[in-house]
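Trying the structure run again after the queue cleared.
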Amino acid sequence: MTTKTRRMTENAVKFDSQKKYQLLEAVTTVKSMANAKFDETVDIAVRLGVNPTKADQMIRGSVTLPKGTGKTRSIAVFAKGDKVKEAQDAGADFVGGDELVAKVQGGWLDFDVAVATPDMMGQVGKLGKTLGPRGLMPNPKSGTVTFDLARAIGEIKAGKVEFRVDKAGNIHAPIGKASFEAQNLFLNAKALIEQLQKMKPASVKGTYIKSVTVSATMGPGLKVDNMNIGLNAVSAA
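Done. Tokens:
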């Protein structure tokens, strides 16, 4: 038998598990329930009406959250030649060529995001079994395979997050911290949902965004009314 914690009991009266909230109302309520001893991450889960086994319906991309993620992420860049200095000047935490590949092959994974120049992908490709399962493999669709390292690194530091549909058709992404103002969480969630809407495959028929759920690290998930999300609830100022 599960014993309810004091936090669970207090939160139970703050939300309706059967209700479908508008987006701004949902993030506001999630904030009110984020009462852990640390700054909880607020996440959004979007279930899409896609078939990920079809190449044109494998939704994968990135979006720069206008209000940032609230988290400093370490960046590893696989590059050589003049691109090494470009990456260093742009603020990359770790930069290297074959020696960095070898370090990762040896088990080192002390970074949150990986970026690579196209001419390094022959070597970085060998790290697929290590980086892939952790969501760290550089990919052109997410903008992490590029010669424009300054731009890529700048976007990551500004709040760029990557997303990829899973086998069940779900997208999961962080939209900030519980300490954020509700409006800023809303604007970040809005940016992600609008990006997903732009990526709707032409082959998808019927409902594309099937469900939206918002939650904090230690809190329950709140259902969002996907038919009336309320993306215009606040200004973008």
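The chain has a mean pLDDT of 89. Worth checking whether this holds up in the mutant runs.
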